[in-house]
């Protein structure tokens, strides 16, 4: 299945592909202060493929907090955070905000998540195991 989405002004566009046999999306409503304030509900699977196209890279801010192991990609024009990336052992991983995806409301299985008790090693291991492992960025 192919799903598209992005930030509100479409400066950041997402194209997400996942295997056809997967009919549902497991989404995690993160309990950290940043995600709560931004309505971050995240989905990922190591078998998905994500293409991110950014029309105007100068209008994208990368925000890191806490452990500084993940970068929240914030569109400076509309304020939406459609994805988060993390580099582990020189490999880029990502998770997408389901609120920035088009037409997925009916296939979401949403649950609350809290990762506050994880140390950095456990956090990176979880991301390497569960986040989207095939991520491609293009500009323009």
Task: Set down the secondary structure blueprint.
Blueprint: E1 2-6, E2 12-17, E3 25-30, H1 33-38, E4 41-43, E5 49-54, E6 60-63, E7 71-75, E8 83-88, E9 91-97, E10 108-113, H2 120-130, E11 134-139
Parallel strand pairs: 3-10, 5-11
Antiparallel strand pairs: 1-2, 2-5, 3-4, 4-9, 6-7, 7-8, 8-9
Radius of gyration: 14 Å
Number of domains: 1
Distance between the termini: 25 Å
The CATH architecture can be named as Beta Complex
CATH class: Mainly Beta
The side-by-side strand order for the widest beta sheet comes to 6-7-8-9-4-3-10
Q: What low-confidence regions span 5 or more consecutive residues with pLDDT below 50?
A: none
Shape: globular
Biggest sheet descriptor: 7 strands, mixed
Which bin fits the share of residues in helices? 10-25%
- Quote the beta fraction: 35-45%
Derived structural class? mainly beta
Query: Would you count the extended β strands for me?
Result: 11
CATH topology: Metal Binding Protein, Guanine Nucleotide Exchange Factor, Chain A
Q: How many helical elements?
A: 2
Element-by-element helix/strand order: EEEHEEEEEEEHE
Mean pLDDT: 91
Task: Note the quaternary state here.
Answer: single chain
